[in-house]
Amino acid sequence: MEILYHTIVGIVLLAASPFILIRMALSKEFRADMLERHRGGKSLPPLPGCWWIHASSAGEVRAAKILLDALNKNGDHPAIVLSTFTQTGYDLAKKENIENVFRLPFDFPLWLNPIFDKLNPSRLILIEAEFWPALLRLAKRKNVPVLLINGRMSERSANRYRNILPFFRWITDPVSVFSMRTQTDADRVLALGIPAAKVQVTGNIKFDARTGDTLSTEKKSTTKHPWVVFGSTRPGDEGPIMESVLRLKKDLPDLNVAIAPRHVERCREIESLILEYQVEFKRHSQLSRNPEDPAGAIILIDTMGELNHYYARATVAFVGGGFNPRFGGQNILEPAALGLPVIYGKHMQNFAEEARLLKESGGGIQIDNPNELYSALHGLLTQPEERARRGQAAAETIRANQGAVRRNIELIKQTQTADSRRETRT
Fold first, then answer.
1. What is the mean pLDDT of the segment spanning 81-110?
2. Which of 104, 178, 284, 323 pairs as cysteine with 83 (C-beta 3.0–4.6 A)?
3. pLDDT tens-digit profile of 338-352?
């Protein structure tokens, strides 16, 4: 299986190389992306015995940051390196001042072997759902234990893997621990044939984000006018958002609005849409460093790492990605941790447990279709007591479900202790 996989990937890369080279010649951004990916971990110093954490994109990097902060607070761990697959994940890691960060190259031994040789990691820790066959097979060959932390398995992914079950079991064979967010996630990997001895349910470490602490002094202190923040929007979200905003501003002309797309490269597309509604707006990057509290502003957040600061100002939050089953929702915990009532769509399969907990507590409002967005927002903005009740319920839901990061750190250290015992016996 391994030889077959590497052969297929090698042929695909060879066949695609002329197109890759042409695009590199024509696109400055693509050329920079390819060169950064090719460099891999070459800029890092040798870090023998390090823990290598891999987080694909921005969402996984945020989860990794929570784990890193907790590890650094304890202080009892070897050096840590973080790899990301996407540019947005890499940019966020840099903005968060995470040390020893690099872009993961293509999943092929030609580029991965030098990284293993240079880092000589003692652990490979995957965040959420990152199964790269060559990466995992090399880890097994080099006797590097692999742990999946904050693991998730959506129904859609489980169905896809079920169609290629022998391949899935081959890919995941090197993973020694599946630390899953929920029992539902655990049941899905068990149904795919993962041995029960490898699977544990430890909770979602995103509940342990320190958002509420680090931004509490910022919240409400710099704003006199109401804010609605539309976070992590996906294609198809912004149309209903703008329709709702225009209706809301008829009753609430001082209402401030911030729109943050899940991918900042969509800002031009969203900018064109806003212009169609003939309203004034500004990009976040155009604002001064310490802008005065506006009234009636519409701001398009075009910079990574700023969304939580807008959540800290917000009166109400909407989190995108739930109107279309293709996207499956986005992270609704960040605004909830700040005591905001959170509105989200029907299709939250990637965040099903979080959506259920917030809905049941009253901290979340799940709407079935985009036409309900205006009434949900209007009700919260015009009923302060109801808004306060739901915001408190959201914050209490976060507090009640914390502790996963501590359990995962204990799990990592347990595997380290077990390895030390085996080495002693040999």
1. 93
2. 104
3. 999 999 999 999 899
Q: What 3-state class would DSSP assign to 417?
A: helix
Cα angle 363, 369, 373; round to 5 = 55
Which residues face 299 on adjacent strands?
A: 258, 282
The structure tokens listed for 417 are 């202790």
Both tokens of 304, joined, read 């990574």
Residue whose entry in the numeric block shows the structure tokens 């009753």: 251
Six-digit token string for 124: 């490979």
**3-class SS letters over 87-101:** HHHHHHHHHCCCCCE
Q: Which of 218, 244, 400, 213 is nearest to 320 (CA)?
A: 244
pLDDT tens by residue, 233-270: 999 999 999 999 999 999 999 999 999 999 999 999 99
Angle at CA of residue 46, ends 45 and 47, nearest 5°: 105
The secondary element (H helix, E strand) that includes residue 81 is: strand 80-84
Q: Where are the beta strands (DSSP E) in 119-264?
A: 123-127, 146-151, 175-180, 199-201, 227-233, 256-261
Can you tell me the distance from the alpha carbon of 153 to that of 170, in angstroms, rounded to the nearest whole number?
17
**What are 282's strand-pairing partners?**
299
- Give the ranges where 100-164 is alpha helix by DSSP (H): 109-119, 133-141, 155-163
Q: What is the pLDDT of residues 265-283, one digit of tens each?
A: 999 999 999 999 999 999 9
Nearest to 2 by CA among 94, 111, 116, 134: 134
Tell me, rounded to whole angstroms, the distance of Cα 189 from its chain centroid.
Answer: 20
Q: Which two tokens stand for residue 66?
A: 């929570």
8-state DSSP, 132: -
pLDDT of 289: 67
DSSP state of 320: -
179 - beta bridge partners? 200
Average pLDDT value over all residues in the chain = 91
Q: Where are the alpha helices (DSSP H) in 252-364?
A: 267-276, 307-313, 333-337, 352-361
Region of residue 132 (left: phi > 0; alpha: psi -120 to 50; beta: else):
beta
What residues does 342 pair with on adjacent strands? 317, 364
Longest Cα–Cα distance of the chain, Å, equals: 75
Give the Å distances, CA to CA, from 382 to 125, 247, 253, 375. Answer: 46, 14, 13, 10
Cα 406 to Cα 397: distance, rounded to the nearest angstrom: 18
pTM for the complete prediction?
Answer: 0.86
